[in-house]
Protein 1
Amino acid sequence: MLIREANAADWPAVWPFFRSVVRAGETYSYPLDIDEPAARALWMLAPPGRTVVAVDDSGTVLGSAKMNPNQMGNAAHIASASFMVDPRHRQRGTGRALGEHALAWARAEGYRGMQFNAVVESNTGAVALWRSLGFQIMTTIPEGFHHPTRGYVGLHIMYQRL
C-alpha cells in the first residue's frame, strides 16, 4: 500500500465511497444528501490542510484522509484529521496506515497534538483503532449523534498529545 498526496484525478475514485459512507449516516455528521461539488470542497483540502489517498499496487484507491489544523489562530497548533476507507476494501489495514500517516505528518509539521472532534461511539472499530494508536476519549457528548438505526448515541472527542 502506498499513501500519497491526493490530486484532482483521484476524486472520481474517492467520491463514490465518500457518498456511500456519508449517505449511510452512521459515522459522519455531513449532510446525508451532500452533493459532489460540496463534498469535493470539504474533502480535497488546500494548504495548510492536506488530503492523501491510500492505493494498492494496481493504483486502486483504497481510502483517503484529510489532515488540517483543528482550529485557527492561537489554537492552530493542534491538528485534526478525517478518514474514509472504501467499504469494498476494508479489513486490509488501510485505516491504520492512514492514521499512522496522519500522526507522522502532524509530528513532522510541528503540531503539539491531534484532536478528533466527532467520533461516533457506536463506530466501535474506529474507536478501537484510534485508542490503539494512542488516542484517549476526552469526553463524550451524550446523544450527540443521531444514528439511523440505533437512535441517539454518544459522540466522542478524542485526543493524542504528540
Protein 2
Amino acid sequence: MQWTFTLEQLPDVAGAFWNYFGDKQVFTLNGPMGAGKTTMIKALCAAKGVGDATASPTFSIINEYGYLDPQGKPRRIYHLDLYRLKDENDAISAGVEDTLYQDAISFVEWPDVIAPLLPPDTIHLQLEVLPDQKRVLREISASDK
C-alpha cells in the first residue's frame, strides 16, 4: 500500500486509507520531524467523523477523540506521541500499553520506544516528504523500520 499526495489531496487519501485498513486498530507512523505525521492523523480522524479539535499530544503524550461508527456506536481514537518518552517503562507509566489493547484505534508517533509492547497485528506506516513537497505514505514491514 502506498499513496503519494499533496496537502489538498489529504482528505481523499484519508478516505482511501480507511477503505483499505477498515478493520485495523493499531498503526505506527514513522517519519522525520516535520513530515506531517500529526497532520496525517488529523485527516484520518476527520475521515472517521471526529468532531473534536485534534492536536499533537507532544506534551500530554496521549490524546483521545470520539466518533460514531456507521451503526451509530460511540468509538474512540487514541493519538500517541512518544517523542518525549525515554523507555518502555516511561510508556507503561503513561498508560500507553492500556490504549493499545482496547477496542479502539491507536495511532502511535515515534513508536520505537514501545516496539515490544505493540500488538502483533500492528500496521507500520512510513511518511516521507518528496522534493516537490508531496508526501508518500506507505506500509512497511516491522523489519523495514
